[in-house]
Amino acid sequence: MTRDTDITTRSVAFEKYHGTDNDFVVVDADEYVPDRGAFATTYCDRSEGVSPASVVGREAGAVASEGGIEGPVGADGVLFLALEDAFSPPRVVMTLVQPDGSTAAMCGNGARCAAAWASNRTGSEEIMIDTQSGTRHARVEGGEATIEMGVPAFAPSEVPLAAGRTAPLIEENVEGLTVTAVDTGVPHAVAFVEDVDAVDLDSVAPAVRYADVFPEGTNVTVAEQIEGERAFRQRTYERGVEGETQSCGTGAVAVAAVAKRLGRLAGDDPVTVSPPGGDLTITVPDDGPATLQGPVVRDFSGELAADPRRRVDA
Ligand SMILES: N[C@@H](CCC[C@H](N)C(=O)O)C(=O)O
């Protein structure tokens, strides 16, 4: 294949995926993207970023059969995925670049999309995903992906909490919110509230997200326990997006892990955690890694300018 070597005209093939409405532009890591941060900032923008109606070389059939040309503008991040299909099961190295140009060590819903992307390419239901927070086993079946998420950690060095702090942060007041800090691949400050809809997340979350006790910042998750059920409602304000997303997989695992730590939940049975974008099924066993399960959808595909300063899709 002849590759276009002129950066002013070079384009990059992408696919758009979402897991419970946490949506990602997916790009093969082999594609030459000169500045991944600028690429993510430009195409994730919620008013002027990528949309099904705007992309060049859109796969029309896929769009027509997968929901028409309507769809959200922008995305919650760009997943750069390097497939290593000589292994059994196939492996994929996942790098999430967020709308602010930062990278995140882990993304639960991103990992579910990465697993589906690799499964679509290889036909394998089993995928190993290499992330900055460890290698995660994934299973893709019947439109759903299940990810092994590691063991949630409360230790100050793992969250991480401010240097010198020796005790886990359990139900403490941080900037007006009573939170528990946990690492589920990335840090989360989880607050249980009576009604998640009554929380003005955009107002209360930023101070917690930047609180001194979290030297690397934190995602901020509010959760509501549904009485009489093994179920919770969830809303998350994400670091890197700097706003609320429709779903957050590491946040859903954090809700279940913190519920267990606080004695709101017992046993190993699955828990339903519902962010605005849909339902996720979580297990947090007493011994062993947590799991995250939920639907994955491939929305559409197309091409984008590799150098967004030269974008031709807008
Ligand atoms: N949406 C993700 C979490 C992505 C990482 C987060 N924004 C961070 O910077 O820690 C998920 O589904 O887990």
UniProtKB/TrEMBL annotation:
One GO term describing the cellular component: cytoplasm
UniProt entry keywords in alphabetical sequence: Amino-acid biosynthesis, Cytoplasm, Isomerase, Lysine biosynthesis
Residue sites binding substrate per the record: N22, Q98, G108, N109, N219, E238, R239, G249, T250
Example GO molecular function: diaminopimelate epimerase activity
Extent of the signal sequence: none
Enzyme Commission designation: 5.1.1.7
Cytoplasm as UniProt keyword: yes
Residues the UniProt record annotates as site (Could be important to modulate the pK values of the two catalytic cysteine residues): H188, E238
Transmembrane segment boundaries: none
Subcellular location: Cytoplasm
InterPro entries referenced in this protein's UniProt entry, alphabetically: DAP_epimerase_DapF
Major site of localization recorded for this protein: cytoplasm
Enzyme active site: C107, C248
Pathway note: Amino-acid biosynthesis; L-lysine biosynthesis via DAP pathway; DL-2,6-diaminopimelate from LL-2,6-diaminopimelate: step 1/1
GO terms classed as biological process: lysine biosynthetic process via diaminopimelate
Reactions this protein catalyses: (2S,6S)-2,6-diaminopimelate = meso-2,6-diaminopimelate
Subunit structure: Homodimer.
Function: Catalyzes the stereoinversion of LL-2,6-diaminopimelate (L,L-DAP) to meso-diaminopimelate (meso-DAP), a precursor of L-lysine.
Similarity section: Belongs to the diaminopimelate epimerase family.
Official protein name in the record: Diaminopimelate epimerase
Gene: dapF
